[in-house]
Amino acid sequence: xxxxxxxxxLCLCLAGxxxxxxxxxxxxxxxxxxxxxxxxxxxxxLVCRNESIDESNASLARDLRILVRDRLxxxxxxxxxxxxxxxxxxxxxxxxxxxTGANWLLWAAGPAMLILAGGMGLLYVRRRTQAAAxxxxxxxxxxxxxxxxxxxx
Length: 153
Known about the structure:
- With 153 residues, this protein is mostly helical.
- It has a domain at 7-93: Helicase, Ruva Protein, domain 3 (Orthogonal Bundle), CATH 1.10.8.
- The chain has six helices and no strands.
- Helix 2 crosses helix 3 (59-73) and helix 3 crosses helix 4 (78-89).
- The longest helix has 28 residues, at 103-130.
- It is elongated and about 100 Å long.
- The N and C termini lie far apart (82 Å).
């Protein structure tokens, strides 16, 4: 009984991605369907944000999957399909944005911040080690007299 429950749980876990693409969306030509699935895995669902349209159950993702398949059936190449969708929805729809144009700034920002933070840390440590040690000052005569008075009690 335990084995049956484990088998059912495993099947349900693995079927999550398969459930996103509905049977009425699947193309008859296996080569076109494979191309459509490949393109769909690289396009972001605009509702789910971090899921591809191939994995998402959102209605907008379904519309985009159908659009991809319609463009492929019309004879567009993979690049033409992606360009068509990017022209409509912007580069945000790509799960792997290109590193061209203004996007290079986003790609370079992480490493640049790491280098800047490391440089600032090194500068702080260097200044800290070169700083003069604070000199100890003795007690003033008034403070010594007050201390003696406190210790007498």
